[in-house]
Specification:
2 domains, mainly alpha, 12 helices
Length: 220
């Protein structure tokens, strides 16, 4: 009994140390501890993570720390912060990767207990490549199984010119979609693979090869 009590005390002390680091108002410290929390999947730090993100969002050049905190919020299942993330994603960011990480986090958290595609559908017409790719990444990381109709909805949208711009330089929606094709029906999978091979067989070759492993590529 004493050993269990001592372990609980140590765990609480450890969490308090993490909270102190998150609230330190030192960007480098916050980024470092956020990465540690994410890798160890330490849950129950929703409020401290939100306060830390609030602070670093006032530092436009600290996009890497912002990105890390957003991924940590997702990885540690901070579902209470979904409304906060939905508010943040409405902002204007020069570091466009933030749209991807925010959309990923929102969709990943929304799909914790059940399939929820409303947010993904809501941004299909946004024309924001990072936003759409991030939303698909959220589904990818949860390994959400999509119906034929859902796959076709996302596939047809991902083929639009606005979502294919610079697809070799950035994570594009079509790239994410093909990486999760192992979850699709065979007909959908083959259609997507054929399209990507026609688009740029060299670029997509390694992604298509990984489909044979039938598992997601870790991102969180």
């Amino acid at each position: 009994m004493n050993s269990e009590k001592n372990a609980a005390i140590r765990s609480e002390v450890f969490k308090q140390e993490l909270v102190s680091s998150l609230l330190s108002k030192k960007v480098s410290t916050i980024k470092k501890v956020a990465k540690r929390i994410r890798r160890q999947r330490i849950e129950g730090l929703d409020q401290a993570l939100a306060e830390a993100l609030d602070f670093v969002m006032t530092k436009p050049r600290s996009w890497e720390a912002q990105h890390e905190l957003i991924l940590t919020i997702a990885a540690t299942d901070c579902t209470s912060l979904i409304p906060y993330l939905e508010e943040l994603v409405q902002g204007n960011y020069s570091a466009t990767v933030l749209y991807r990480s925010l959309a990923l986090a929102i969709v990943y958290l929304q799909n914790k207990d059940r399939k929820e595609l409303s947010y993904v559908y809501s941004i299909l017409e946004s024309g924001n490549q990072n936003l759409f790719a991030g939303a698909l990444l959220g589904l990818n990381q949860r390994e959400v199984v999509l119906s034929h109709e859902e796959v076709q909805d996302f596939y047809c949208t991902a083929k639009r010119e606005v979502y294919l711009e610079n697809f070799r330089q950035v994570i594009s929606p079509i790239q994410v979609l093909v990486s999760m094709a192992y979850l699709f029906e065979d007909k959908d999978r083959q259609e997507l693979i054929s399209y990507c091979q026609e688009l740029n067989s060299a670029f997509f070759s390694s992604i298509i090869t990984n489909l044979n492993k039938n598992k997601k590529i870790p991102y969180l």
